[in-house]
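Students often ask why inverse folding is considered easier than folding. One informal answer: many sequences map to the same fold, so there is more than one right answer. In these notes we will look at a single instance of the problem. The structure comes first.
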């Protein structure tokens, strides 16, 4: 069954939303206390990383460490990633997305990233050849994501086992110390891949009149 269409035009801007520049960027979703964001931005000074975390205390911890380390190419954002992405990002602006150890949502599988209609919107923001790194310690989460990539999203990916010595995030360290198997999917957007949001400009970049027109005439769901 095709996934229903994400209602992007209904997303309200996050509180205190500020537009970002339209340059190519990397985006981490659910960055926690920012361990990976700080490492990645330090190791890749030529890349700009936006690290989004919706839990205030965790985002504050990331912000504090960022002030100490001072990476000029890192921007921590306290927000829900979905409305922030809809309001901030241009089509094909993103070089890499990172979703590392997302909440497994055991009681609400529809809320897992690849099960949500929002995932189509996320794909529209990714540039051709861009990647999404999805890591988890839950084998079933990875297996379900693989199935969705094949049957629904029709995207190429590789599956990797994460080395026991890896220490990119606080959750990764915890799971590997417990001896759990951690895996990741590296998903690539191929040339010619189309989504229903490829022409959807960020909501904050549109005039009020355009937004009203969009709300009045949403695209038909398939
Ligand atoms: C299990 S934690 C993993 C944190 C970090 N990536 C790590 O591996 O240590 C998942 C994180 O995703 C955040 N999160 C979940 N949904 C989110 C959303 N829609 N927008 C922003 N952050 C989200 C949660 O607040 C939580 O901090």
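Output (designed amino acids):
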């Amino acid at each position: 069954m095709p996934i229903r269409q994400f209602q992007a035009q209904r997303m309200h801007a996050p509180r205190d939303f500020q537009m970002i520049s339209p340059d190519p960027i990397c985006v981490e979703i659910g960055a926690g206390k920012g361990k990976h964001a700080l490492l990645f931005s330090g190791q890749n000074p030529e890349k700009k990383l936006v690290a989004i975390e919706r839990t205030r205390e965790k985002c504050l911890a990331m912000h504090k460490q960022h002030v100490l380390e001072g990476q000029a190419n890192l921007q921590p954002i306290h927000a829900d990633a979905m409305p922030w992405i809809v309001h901030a990002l241009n089509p094909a602006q993103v070089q890499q997305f990172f979703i590392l150890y997302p909440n497994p949502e055991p009681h609400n599988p529809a809320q897992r990233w690849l099960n949500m209609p929002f995932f189509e919107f996320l794909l529209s923001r990714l540039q051709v050849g861009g990647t999404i790194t999805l890591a988890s310690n839950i084998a079933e989460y990875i297996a379900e994501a693989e199935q969705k990539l094949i049957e629904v999203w029709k995207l190429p990916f590789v599956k990797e086992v994460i080395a026991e010595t890896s220490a990119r995030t606080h959750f990764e360290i915890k799971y590997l110390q417990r001896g759990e198997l951690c895996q990741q999917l590296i998903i690539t957007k191929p040339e010619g891949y189309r989504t229903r949001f490829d022409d959807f400009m960020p909501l904050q970049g549109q005039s009020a009149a355009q937004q009203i027109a969009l709300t009045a005439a949403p695209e038909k769901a398939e």
